[in-house]
Write a structure and sequence with these properties.
7 helices; nine-stranded mixed β-sheet; TIM Barrel; globular; binds zinc ion
C-alpha cells in the first residue's frame, strides 16, 4: 500500500506533524508515503505561503531510521494555472529542490478556488465541472514539469449538487474536455492520480473516467488520500486500487527523483 498525496504542517492548510503521518502510516502498514505539500502561485494575493521544502527535508532527515517500515518520498503538489506568471514562479521555486514527485493540480478557475461554494453559485453542475476541466486543459498547454495530474474531480469535492459525482458522460462537452486532458497528459508521458478525497462518504466513482483514460492509452496511475490530518491517511486506497484494476489500468507508479517505477496492478 502506498499513499502518494499527503499534506503536513508545511502546507498552509494542514496542522499535521510529519511524525503523526508517519506513525499512522506505520500503524496502517503503508509501505511508502510521499509528502506532497502545497506550492501555490496560481492565485495572486490569495495564496498560502509555499511549503518550505528545505526545512521539511531537514525535518524528515532528522527521523533517520525511526520509521524503517515506511519508505519516505519528498514530493510537492503544485497549483497550475494557464498563465506564464504561475508557470515561471512555480518553476523557479522548485529549481533549488529536487523533488521525488510532483502532482500538478488545478484548484482555481478564473480567480476563484473551486473549494468555495461561491464558485458553484449560479452555475449548473455541468457548467461548473466543464469550466474546471477546460481550465485544466488550458494549464496543461503550459505545465510540463509534473509527474501526475492531481484530482481531476477536485471541483466535486465540496459541490452543492444532490449528486456530486464526476462522470465522463455528464455531457458531450465534458467528455471531450476529458479527452483533451488525457491526450495531453499521455503525450507528455505523465499519468493521473486516483484521489479518494472527493468521494467523502459517497460510493466510489470514476470507473468510466478511468476507462476513458485507458482507452486513450493511459498506462499508469498513482494513489492518494490527500490527507491533511492523520486520521485520513490511507483512506479508501484499497478501493482506488480495485477501481484501477476494474478499469484495466496496467500499472501504478512510485517515484524517486522524478523517475517512475511501474508496478503491475493485478
Ligand atoms: Zn489539491
Ligand atoms: Zn492535496
Amino acid at each position: 500500500m502506498i499513499d502518494y498525496h499527503v499534506h503536513t504542517c508545511f502546507s498552509g492548510d494542514s496542522m499535521a506533524l510529519p511524525s503523526e503521518m508517519l506513525d499512522s502510516a506505520a500503524r496502517l502498514g503503508i509501505d511508502e508515503i510521499c509528502f506532497t505539500d502545497h506550492v501555490d502561485f496560481d492565485n495572486p494575493g490569495n495564496n498560502f505561503e509555499p511549503a518550505d521544502l528545505a526545512a521539511r527535508h531537514e525535518c524528515l532527515k532528522a527521523f533517520g531510521g525511526c520509521y524503517r517500515s515506511v519508505r519516505i518520498r519528498e514530493g510537492v503538489e503544485i497549483s497550475m494555472a494557464p498563465s506564464d506568471a504561475c508557470f515561471e514562479k512555480t518553476k523557479a521555486y522548485l529549481a533549488a529542490f529536487q523533488p521525488d514527485f510532483i502532482i500538478g493540480s488545478q484548484h482555481v478557475v478564473n480567480g476563484v478556488d473551486v473549494y468555495y461554494p461561491e464558485y458553484h453559485q449560479g452555475k449548473t453542475k455541468e457548467d461548473a465541472y466543464l469550466a474546471y476541466l477546460e481550465t485544466i486543459a488550458a494549464s496543461l498547454e503550459k505545465f510540463d514539469f509534473f509527474s501526475v495530474l492531481g484530482h481531476y474531480d477536485f471541483v466535486a469535492k465540496f459541490a452543492p449538487y444532490p449528486d456530486r459525482s464526476m462522470k465522463s458522460d455528464l455531457s458531450p462537452l465534458i467528455r471531450s474536455a476529458f479527452e483533451r486532458i488525457f491526450k495531453s497528459v499521455i503525450s507528455m508521458g505523465k499519468g493521473i492520480e486516483i484521489n479518494t478525497a472527493a468521494w467523502r462518504d459517497d460510493p466510489r466513482w470514476g470507473l468510466d473516467v478511468l476507462k476513458l483514460y485507458r482507452e486513450l492509452g493511459g498506462e499508469f496511475v498513482t494513489f492518494g488520500s490527500d490527507a491533511h490530518r492523520s486520521v485520513s491517511l490511507g483512506n479508501r486506497l484499497s478501493e482506488a486500487y480495485e477501481l484501477a484494476r476494474d478499469a484495466g489500468i496496467p500499472y501504478y507508479a512510485v517515484f524517486e527523483k522524478m523517475k517512475p517505477s511501474f508496478i503491475a496492478i493485478d
